[in-house]
Amino acid sequence: MKFLDEYRDAEASRRLAAAIKATLHHPWTIMEVCGGQTHTIVKSGLEDLLPAEIRLVHGPGCPVCVTPIELIDTAIAISRRPEVIFTSFGDMLRVPGSSRSLLDAKAQGADIRIVYSPLDAVKLARENPERQVVFFAVGFETTAPPNAMAVWQAARLGLENFSVLVAHVLVPPAMEAILASPACQVRAFLAPGHVCTVEGFEDYEPLAQRYRVPIVVTGFEPVDLLEGVLMAVMQLEAGRHEVENQYCRAVQRSGNRQAREAVNEVFEIGERVWRGIGEIPRSGLRLREAYRRFDAVNRFAAEVTAAPEPAECISGLVLRGIRKPVECAEFGARCTPEHPLGAPMVSSEGACAAYYLYRRQRREPAHAR
Amino acid sequence: MPVDFTLQCPVPLPSDERIVLAHGGGGRLTQRLIETIFLPAFGNPALHERHDGAALNVNGQRLAFSTDSYVVRPLIFPGGTIGDLAVNGTVNDLAMCGARPLYLSAAFILEEGLPMETLRAVVESMRLAAERAGVTLVTGDTKVVDKGKGDGIFITTSGIGAVEHTFTGPVGIQPGDAVIVSGPLGDHGITILSVREGLEFDAPLASDTRPLWEPVDRMFRAGIDVHCLRDLTRGGLSSALNELAQTRGISIQIDESRIPVREAVRGACEFLGLDPLYVANEGKFVVFVPAGQADGVLELLPEAALIGSTGPSFDPVVTMRSRIGGTRVVDVLSGEQLPRIC
């Protein structure tokens, strides 16, 4: 398949792995920021090809994982209202709130529907004028443009029965929070390619300078990731700290102008609590005043009250790259995809789920029989 | 467009108090349902085999018996109808027992308001499928439920076959066996999903629903020493391999680059974020044979592919060598990938 097979090519992968080995003189810890990248790494067994001196740690780039527990509780409360059709991307349904998930609410009768695009939620609102359609606007910069478009369209159509529960987060402030932490071991970043298709990578340049870390905008296929690692290692070994673009087939330095304008029209930057990490200043998006009538929290006068996380879950350490999922005592024991203690075990982009699915520690080999 | 399926990521068990869609998905929750509700109630040696069909001794005659229910939307799709699935599904369960399918029953639950034309089309497809599979539909039943209480048509078929080839099944799998799939994976699941979601791809997709007795019979008659057979339905290849690895207590290694998947199905899977290893099939099986007989099987089954081998470890884990040469675990589906497609 064109544009995929060449980026999963065994020969190209071997060549890149050999180049990394030849370039490498020191051990380095590199963080891939995006959960999609984590999944490719684990699913393709990419670490089997890397020299042992490269330690890949997995970043916070899983929107489902970082959506605060109290917002999930709010979503459930709204979804249970009889007039509401609650719409969401599939992943959010599985995430446990403080006592249950949206999927539980669905099994108990709430009208919760999975959509592929927020514009489908707008369409639902037009088709069901007697119902209130709410869309759970979750995600990083990548999903912000379509979500902005949905709100903009609802405003243009004068839809009174459409609203969004906003949980948008931004990548650069999260990277800065990780770098500013004294526990930080990350020496280079593979920045999330899809986020950068929208926002470009100018925002990463001050980070690279201030913290003296190489940042390589990287794609999502095995060859992309190996090339990203190679570019990062070349910088590290040479003592450089620049922003480079591996994913040049999709990303331009200034991003996608129209998409940025759409986001800017509807959203403004605000504070945001990250599940497992805490509040990060200027790390989220909220609706601008002109569009605030589409805010589901206001419309339903919903309360957002802080809720505690299960104490055993170390997702905060996992999301900041300080621990790997298998370094958690509960991993695969009390915490499994069927009974997750924390969000990274739930989402398809969560690091713990990726490890559980593809890299589970093998059981002790049984004796030959 | 709103859809009522979820992607392949794991679904947490919301509670053990209510049935969720994933209980019917063929994955871990289905297994748990069988283990906690059905086996304790009905447990007996035949049932404990946990096969899709049961092989029974009746007056010295070896018979295979199987039943299956069919719920699918849409009722008519490229490559078949719910009627084709209802005939072929049960016929194939019998074939996997080494049994020539002979007789079927069919019970219909019809929803008030169903167009007679739809029922006619489904029944006609069943007639043709039964003819093709060489079975006779000998008894049946019809019930009608209120509008809104059904999904057009639900069909349950049961089948009886005469066991013509005996083989050991999962316990017969030996270290070093060749693992072969009978053809490209994922056609049925992706076809249903594409029709449901209104997705169109350059290459047309069609369900692979078909009877499997003939190719199975061909292998046995050619003298292939079949160690184990399993048809790939809900839960796809990964569920079948994991189940067999567990039952036998043996490791299975497969090679991603050898797994046959049509270009259009691969494209759709990439687009939708699905893994073809978990997508449903309705006319494919996996067969375990001694390594030396693999070429023989590939000659007999033109679409088949050798995808891996068993052992040497007795650790019941399925692993896959990725295209780039890394290794990963292939786990059983933990939630639902595509509910209600078969």
Report what the structure shows.
The complex is a heterodimer of chains A (369) and B (342). Chain A contains 15 helices and eleven strands. Chain A is an alpha/beta fold and 369 residues long. Among the domains of chain A are: 130 residues, HypD, alpha/beta domain 2 (Rossmann fold); 44 residues, no CATH class. Chain A has a six-stranded mixed β-sheet, with helices on both faces. In chain A, helix 2 runs parallel beside helix 15 and helix 7 crosses helix 12. Chain A is globular. Chain B has 342 residues and is α+β, with helices and mostly antiparallel strands. In chain B, a hairpin with a 2-residue loop joins strand 3 and strand 4. In chain B, helix 3 packs parallel to helix 4. The longest helix of chain B has 18 residues. At the A-B interface, helix 1, helix 5, helix 6 and helix 15 of A face helix 8 and strand 14 of B.
Give a topology summary:
The complex is a heterodimer of chains A (369) and B (342).
Chain A: H1 10-23, E1 28-34, H2 35-43, E2 54-61, H3 63-66, H4 69-79, E3 84-88, H5 102-107, E4 112-114, H6 118-127, E5 132-139, H7 144-157, E6 162-169, H8 171-180, E7 188-192, H9 193-199, H10 205-211, E8 215-218, H11 222-238, E9 243-245, H12 257-266, E10 267-274, E11 278-287, H13 296-299, H14 315-319, H15 351-358
Parallel strand pairs in A: 1-2, 1-7, 3-4, 3-5, 5-6, 7-8, 8-9
Antiparallel strand pairs in A: 6-11, 10-11
Helix pairs in contact in A: 1-11, 2-15, 6-7, 7-12
Chain B: H1 28-42, H2 45-48, E1 53-58, E2 61-70, E3 76-77, E4 80-81, H3 82-95, E5 99-111, H4 116-133, E6 136-145, E7 153-163, E8 178-181, H5 187-197, H6 213-221, E9 228-231, H7 236-248, E10 252-255, H8 263-272, E11 285-289, H9 294-300, E12 305-310, E13 318-321, E14 327-329
Parallel strand pairs in B: 5-6, 10-13
Antiparallel strand pairs in B: 1-2, 2-7, 3-4, 5-7, 8-11, 8-12, 9-11, 10-12, 13-14
Helix pairs in contact in B: 3-4
